[in-house]
């Protein structure tokens, strides 16, 4: 079953909102999503830069590179 994006309480609250309240509510959701995207983008930038540095470092082959990247993934970076 698909996970619900909103619960029943939030649905009823939205249903009772006027235009200005809906605009403010949607703007807040947009900003939260934007901030989540910024954080995710920073993390991706770090991974890309790390991969570039590791690929250009003498002594780090494909196997060691994969182990390092797996460790980074486990740490959630």
Structural summary, described in words:
The chain is mainly alpha-helical and 77 residues long. It contains 3 helices and no strands. The protein has helices at 8-15, 19-55, 62-75. The longest helix is centred in the middle third of the chain and has 37 residues, at 19-55. The protein is elongated. The two termini are 30 Å apart.
The largest β sheet comes out as: none
Distance between the termini: 30 Å
Overall 3D form = elongated
Structural class designation: mainly alpha
The helix count comes to: 3
> In percent, how helical is the residue content?
over 70%
Strand percentage, roughly? under 5%
Please provide the count of β strands. Answer: 0
Rounded to the nearest angstrom, the radius of gyration is 21 Å
Unreliable stretches (pLDDT < 50, length at least 5) are: none
Oligomer type: single chain
Write the element-wise H/E pattern from the N-terminal end onward.
Answer: HHH
- Overall pLDDT metric: 86
Blueprint (SSEs and pairs):
Layout: H1 8-15, H2 19-55, H3 62-75
Helix pairs in contact: 2-3
Question: Can you summarize this structure?
Answer:
The chain has three helices and no strands.
Which terms summarize this structure?
mainly alpha; 3 helices
């Amino acid at each position: 079953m698909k996970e619900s994006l909103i619960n029943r309480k939030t649905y009823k609250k939205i249903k009772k909102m006027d235009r200005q309240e809906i605009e403010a509510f949607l703007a807040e959701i947009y900003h939260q999503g934007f901030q989540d995207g910024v954080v995710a983008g920073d993390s991706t930038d770090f991974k890309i830069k790390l991969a570039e540095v590791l690929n250009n470092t003498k002594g780090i082959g494909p196997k060691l590179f994969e182990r390092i990247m797996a460790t980074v993934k486990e740490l959630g970076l």
